[in-house]
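Minutes, project check-in
Item: structure for the 658-residue chain
Input as provided by the requester:
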Amino acid sequence: MRTDPARLEMMRSYFNAIAAGMGHVIERTSFTTFVKESADFATALATPDGEFYVYPKTVGVTIFLGLSLKRAIKESGPFKPGDIVLTNDPYSTDGLATHLPDLHVFKPIFSGGEIISYAWAFVHCSDVGGMVPASISPTATDIHQEGLRIPPVKIYKEGKADRDILSVLRANSRAPELNEGDINAMIAAVNTAEARLKEMIGKFGKKEVQQGMEDLLEQASIRAGKVIGRIPEGTYSFSDYLDDDMVSDVPIRLAVSAKVSDGKITLDFSDCDPQVQTAFNLVTNGSKHSFLYQGLINYIISEDPFIPVNGGLTRPIGVIAPRGTLVNPEYPASVGIRHSITMRLYNAVLGALAKALPEDIPAAGAGQSAIVVLSAPDESAGGRKMSVVEPMGGGGGGQHDMDGADGIDHASGFLKNTPIESLEQHIDIHVHRYELIKDTAGAGFHRGGHAIGLEFEITASESMVTARGMERLRFQPWGLAGGTAGALGRVRLHPNEPREKMIPKIDVLKLKQGDILSIHSPGGGGWGDPFTREPELILREVEAGLLSEDAAYQKYGVALKKNGEGRFAIDKEETSKIRKNRAGEHLKQWDFGVAREAYEGLWTEEASTTLAQLLRQLPANQRSHVKHLVHRYFSKEDHRLINTQAVAAVFEKLAGKK
């Protein structure tokens, strides 16, 4: 590094202030609740090569820092001062845009006739057309069903708006005013960044600012390498599952092998399932992509809280993502639910690290971020209005030194809840309950976080609800180091009424006035032996209504009794007796829950890996179908036959009948 450390730290503060200031502009000028309340947006500054050299931690989402503008710059340049580019297309940007509702804007910033930086922003917009309101349906089979694709294109040329492009955008949305308002907020943000960066150049000089960018990236890379260097060298493998692809009951398997050597780590996703025919795919074009290893990024930042947060910290990370897999699908695979893949990869990557660092890694959190969206007729203006009801996270995983966070998983910690008062102002809804749910946290020395419950009533006819990213309704978030798995999520229509109905993951749910929907998210897994948790903590949670008396007894071995004032007290003698008699119940390193253990009792790691490797022999668009055929075959045969040899034989038999 060439910049004096004290001066570099001062420049880092300037850069952070500019990038965070962009975020505050978006917060204060955007139109939609999902942006200004839930904070699904981001801002950053990038080098002329497209690498983010500053990415604020305090405003907006944090999962884009390892992405690159490089391909989008190539597709839309050359540039002149005043140009601004818009895109939402994953395939022509190497996954900068990860699904179509994410609108990305960037602006080249010139100094002395050369581009010195790019100002970048994104928002998750309200609607870009497609099959359903809000543009995301899990059962979409083609990206063209998901809405309008916008390759990197200049919406401002030398400071003048391209009205033709803006007209096309308006014509392809159910909520054009909302989209346009959020686009204008991003335009204001990148313009603000341009003005402030030029002020900074005036203060420090162009060459020093350029050197500062490179030095911050190098500093992040060096410090990330030191964190990775503390991981014992070796190769660590792990897998986890999405419940299904919503066209069959066959789980989606996400597998990773992490090879650690010489301060670097390579994540190999070769044994992931093939791309699916529904919207559970993540476009990376085989390149490094922060959605693949967000868990590792968070681990690095946790181990070195003062590391510069920028693309440099991903430099020691390598990726292998074969074409035709879930993490590198071939066009025109649909991608709307790509964040479900991201969150399960978070669990898988941390699961692999837990084999190397069992004391440092948390249990699995809820592993979902179900964005519940309501669309209702707009009787005053015509068309439809829509709003995010809530981003439904769930409990975080317990850690060796603390309980899991209630109501929010560390894999989606950036999203904020929508205030009920604001929500009921914007859309036809009446929220009955929004609360933490009793007995949903995985038990442990440090328990998991409690799940969220949301219950709301529809107040307008012909309303529709979508809930992209709903997961863990089948496979529980795993517990670690003796902790137990967290509770499953669930969905009910008309809860607590005679006509109550349990329903599966929501695609598009058509509701009428007076219908009541209840959604419970999953709870986080626990960490450590629950019988070593302090009984006083158990008593406190029973008194707070988060734990039942029965769960205290069954999960923690804590017996309670009523005192003379009618309040609970710990029965110390009985508690000691219970815990002594049940010692040794929580010795498993992993608790995957009943459903996963039953599934892997049939489909072992070896059998699933063998099938994933065999499927790579087929064209990408045939692999998922053949996987379903193989699973269907074994579901009708003797389950004891599922081994590597039997899988290979059945594959050869069925692959020709696709």
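Outcome recorded: The CA atoms of residues 561 and 569 lie 5 Å apart.
No further action items on this chain.
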